[in-house]
Amino acid sequence: MSNILYIVVPCYNEQEVLPETSKRLREKVQTLRQGGKIDADSRILFVNDGSKDATWEMIQKLHEENSVFSGVNLSRNRGHQNALLAGIAVAAEHADMIVSMDADLQDDVDAMDRMIDAYEAGNDIVYGVRSSRQKDTFFKRNTAQLFYRMLHFLGAEIVYNHADYRLLSRRAAKGLLSFEEVNLFLRGIVPMVGYQSTTVTYERGERFAGESKYPLGKMVAFALEGVTSLSVKPIRMITMGGLFVCLVSLGMLIKAFVDYANGNVEPGWTSVIISIWVLGGLQLFAIGIIGEYIGKTYMETKRRPRYLIESVLLDAVEQEDTPG
Ligand code: UDP
Ligand code: MG
């Protein structure tokens, strides 16, 4: 049985961190190789997600100097999740196990040892889970918490405090690639792949250098993506809300009739104004959520490619066809 490891690292404008990241990952691969845990054909696969800085030039240079470094160059910026998927797709052709991690060294590289141990113990998916969020900003910590809670409430099967630091076996990766949705929210989809899985906890550090590539706007879009791609519960909640409002208005109607019959007709300004505003708000909100899903359906019907690869730098050793 071979043990080829591919470490997939999506990079968007990461020239500040790449020198350090590549150094640490190379050292990690070296020690793992010396320890006999992984094969010599293991690779570090950087995916350049349409960076505007020198990221791709740096990846090319790393590859020239040492063939342990390989690279995938996307035709343009497609976002973290798609870049990750592109890397996994390339890696799944060669690797037995694929570890995905961010470029900024927030994920503890040393946790990889335990991930590989868990893989050897028979797990197809090993989730990296943060032991604490002390290093995150107060805002990020709390919004992230709220987000996970909400996804749970909506019925999505999602691993708490797990980002995209994980190990996938080859068959889990192939399984993941067979999910064809264009709107991709990997941490919600991976649990659907199934197979035996486990978690490995690690301390998440601060970004090594450079700025976060997930500004607030992108984060909100990502969260919305997560909700609407994993659950249709919001639409059901709207239906229930609508039903409730209908029942209440029925009650009001009866009251109005009784009042009319008794001859005490009220001026009624307050109730009219309140109903208009409450119902107006509810309707706008409901239409908005339904619109989200319709938009999503529209995007999915186009069946657009999730990414296009411009070039691949990879000196993979040709694998023999092994039976079984
Ligand atoms: N990233 C990417 N494409 C993008 C945005 C981000 O490939 O459009 C990569 C980025 O280079 C990093 C990872 O996704 O390796 C996570 O981004 P970042 O660390 O900035 O996010 P944060 O940790 O702040 O949530
Ligand atoms: Mg980061």
The overall number of domains is 2
Judging from the principal axes of the Cα atoms, what is the shape?
elongated
How far apart the termini lie comes to 11 Å
Category by helix and strand content? alpha/beta
Q: What is the residue-averaged pLDDT?
A: 85
* Helicity, as a percent range: 40-55%
Q: Class of the largest domain, according to the CATH hierarchy?
A: Alpha Beta
Identify low-pLDDT runs. 318-324
**Overall strand count:** 8
Rg, Å, rounded? 25 Å
Order of helices and strands: EHEHEHEHEHEHHEHHHE
Largest sheet: 8 strands, mixed
Q: What hetero molecules are bound to the protein chains?
A: uridine-5'-diphosphate, magnesium ion
CATH superfamily of the largest domain: Spore Coat Polysaccharide Biosynthesis Protein SpsA, Chain A
**The CATH topology of the largest domain is what?**
Spore Coat Polysaccharide Biosynthesis Protein SpsA, Chain A
The tally of helices reads 10
Question: What is the CATH-assigned architecture of the largest domain?
Answer: Alpha-Beta Complex
InterPro entries: Glyco_trans_2-like, Glycosyltransferase_2, Nucleotide-diphossugar_trans
Domain Glycosyltransferase 2-like: 7-174
GO molecular function, one term: glycosyltransferase activity
Pfam family, one: Glycos_transf_2
